[in-house]
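Researcher: For the record, we're logging two predictions in this thread. I'll number them. Prediction 1 follows.
Model: Prediction 1, sequence and structure:
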Amino acid sequence: MDADLVALSAALGSAALARPDQRRLLLATAESCTGGWAAQVITHTAGSSAWFERGFITYSDQAKVDMLGVRLQTLEKFGAVSPETAVEMATGALKNSNALISLAITGIAGPTGGSPGKPVGTVCFAWCRVGEAANAESAVFAGDREAIRRQAVVHALRGLLLRLDAA
């Protein structure tokens, strides 16, 4: 793992543990196109079991439905790569874990699968905290499959770090 990802992992751990109320802030991930890479980065830091609760790898639409409770209507209307699906993934990760905050990543890493409306590199993200509405956003990353996936992981974890720091 490169130095940037190692530093991001350590920063997430520090932020999750640096709580004024001394309460552990457990994290959960719901990943599709990144295949567990975000969870791998989080768990790179020794002691991460103190802040990482679990990760869901829901690559297929059926896995999103079965494991996270994403509604079929959402998938049919908006597609698997949409802010709406990302929100349901993040919300489902919280409902199916003991975590207090979650992130979701769903996208098109390529080299195929893109369309004019959703080109290769399109990735949708969501972050959700227990008791709050989820926040979602989309980005389009350039590069090959590996580069797109890495950029998605970094973006998702930086977004999580911002939310942890704001808590």
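Researcher: Logged. Prediction 2.
Model: Prediction 2, sequence and structure:
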Amino acid sequence: MSSKYQSREIITKAICGKGRKFSTVTHTVTPPHKPTSILGAWIINHQYEAVAAGDGIEVIGTYDINIWYSYDKNSQTEVAKETVSYVENVPLSYLDSKHRASTVEVTAEATQEPSTVEASVSGDGRVIIRVEREFAVELVAETKLNVLVAPGGDEDKDFDFGSDDGDYEDLDPDLLDDEL
């Protein structure tokens, strides 16, 4: 490196951690009547928040399970409702250890809302519900970036970053990066 360049530290907010977790969980609901058959099972009213927890992010939430079932030898129907609470620990697959812990903000997005994939009646009249859900999480914090600075370099030059009349029709769209 040439001696005319100097290094500067810039403090900025950046994504310093990311993670994703898919899970399948099982819930048991006991309806007031012994079910003959399950006519439908839905997850509604999903609410959640994210909190930092060690080397991961905890997603804390609730949802309602609604089970439409028949009973009394398929002569009656009813809907059983139950609210479920959960804590999902999502590990961070990427974590920049140089972030300032006092500035941490965490977010979570349900990339797959909780949904019922199977509902069945057990021998004792309970309903077993299998639910899938997936979350993507991010940890944003202040961190330091090191940049090279050329003292007195291009300070007096005017740069025009406006549109140019370049021809973009010959660009290959398959070479463009979707991750930008």
